[in-house]
Amino acid sequence: MSYIVPPGLYAVGQPTPDSPVIVTANYKMTYDLVRQALVRCDAWLLVLETYGINVWCAAGKGTFGTQEIVRRVVSSRLVELVNHRSLVLPILGAPGVAAHQVKSQCGFLIRYAANRAADLPEYLGNGMQTTPVMRALSFSLAERLVLIPVELVLELKAVTLIALAVLLGFSLAGSFADGLQAFSAYAGAFGCGIALTPVLLPWLSGRRFALKGALLGLLWTCCCYFLSGGGWPLLVTLAAVLVLPAVSAYHALNFTGCTPYTSRSGVRKELRNSLPVMAGAVGTGLLLLLISLFV
Amino acid sequence: MRGYRYLPDVVTLEFDPDLCVGCGRCFDVCPHQVFVIKENKAWMVDRDACMECGACARNCPVKAITVDAGVGCATGLIGEWLNEIKPRRKGCS
User: Fold this and answer.
1) Do A121 and A40 meet the contact criterion of CB atoms below 8 Å apart?
2) Do A263 and B59 touch (CB under 8 A)?
3) Which of A90, A106, A186, A200 is the most exposed place for a label (fewest CB within 10 A)?
4) Where are the domains of chain A?
5) Which CATH number among 3.40.50.11240, 3.40.50.11600, 3.10.310.30, 3.30.1330.10 corresponds to the domain A8-135?
6) What is the pLDDT of residues B11-51, one digit of tens each?
7) Does B57 touch chain A (CB under 8 A)?
8) What is the ipTM of this complex?
């Protein structure tokens, strides 16, 4: 199945020369959402070639951009089709588009309408006024939950290998039961970072993702200790306290790429501060485990 | 953005009010309401909310706004750093 819609001009309903022109990306899901939103409207839909990428990501890369808009306006001979000279764009397409350059190059005025396609009917119905609600971004629990499976799949290969190594290592050093316990402890720490942190994101204290993840990882380490009945050797306990929160923190930090509010400079700062700490914690933890084999 | 806040005092967003012509584009495009328009001028009222998407700078007709735009993604940044460390291969840029 192809997720790319051929770029070009489409009609929704029965558009006339006075109907608005809505600009969108050629990712099928985006295109379908816009068409669904416009189901009771008559409009022109100008689909840009974004190579099957959504508006926000394509705008970041510049494919949803000034040149592509100008090219499509010209190739679709829009000036012959409509009486007006304006294009309705999603707000999240703005990083790729210089409105004043589109205007000077093809004569069309850009109107940034709303963040969500669902707000288009209201926008078109109220005389093209963007309300504060149409401007406001959200990152609800449902919006965070749908991102978790994507992250899981991306990390699955590396994490499975590490988990198997943990299972094997602890089984060889102790018993298979030890192996299983260490395996579950690692898997749980991974889950804390990749799933539980996103779920609890607005309620976890602090602004740093690594800290949010480390906090949950530490709680998980305590759970492991008490669930297993305690009695871990001192070195193993120390190693767990160092490694498990670091694992969780690392995966929590990766969720920055999914959020609509973390800046590049902020993530860079957090990485610079936290990566050495995480690496140090994991390194020290592994060393302690190694030492524990010989004492 | 209600309920979410990232690190303060880190973003590269700069605004020169002397150049501003008050067109309001920065207000139109910012997903985090960093700018407001008052008395025919833009005011940067919430700099720390900026996520450096670059929409305001790109849409400012008089270049009154600058920002080092990019994606705030840890995986992406680590990938970039690894690429810098790796010796350049032939044919790759």
Assistant:
1) yes
2) no
3) A200
4) 8-135, 141-294
5) 3.40.50.11600
6) 999 999 999 999 999 999 999 999 999 999 999 999 999 99
7) no
8) 0.90
